[in-house]
Design brief:
- This protein has 87 residues and is mostly helical.
- Helices cover 49% and strands 0% of the residues.
- The chain is globular, with a radius of gyration of 12 Å.
Length: 87
């Protein structure tokens, strides 16, 4: 279990808020836990909502057709790294 960085914690809060994850606290999202499938259990609609929220909050556009998008959405840590590198 690794700890969230401050930026990952802020992104986790955004995910919980935007997706209305009532049973999940932001600090419970492991940075290396998968966001989709067997991990946090998110789906493609959640991905669209996350992309919109990140665009509004950070000014970073995430496009489904871009290479690297699937990898960016793998974990909280990879999503945060993508956002930070594209600001």
């Amino acid at each position: 279990m690794s700890a969230q960085t401050p930026a990952e914690a802020a992104l986790a809060e955004l995910l919980v808020e935007v997706l209305n994850l009532e049973d999940v606290e932001p600090n419970e999202i492991e940075p290396e836990e998968l966001l989709f499938g067997d991990g946090l259990g998110l789906d493609s609609i959640d991905a669209l909502e996350i992309a919109l929220a990140i665009a509004q909050e950070h000014g970073v556009e995430i496009k489904a057709e871009d290479e690297g998008t699937k990898e960016a959405f793998a974990t909280l840590r990879s999503l945060n790294a993508f956002v930070e590198s594209n600001k």
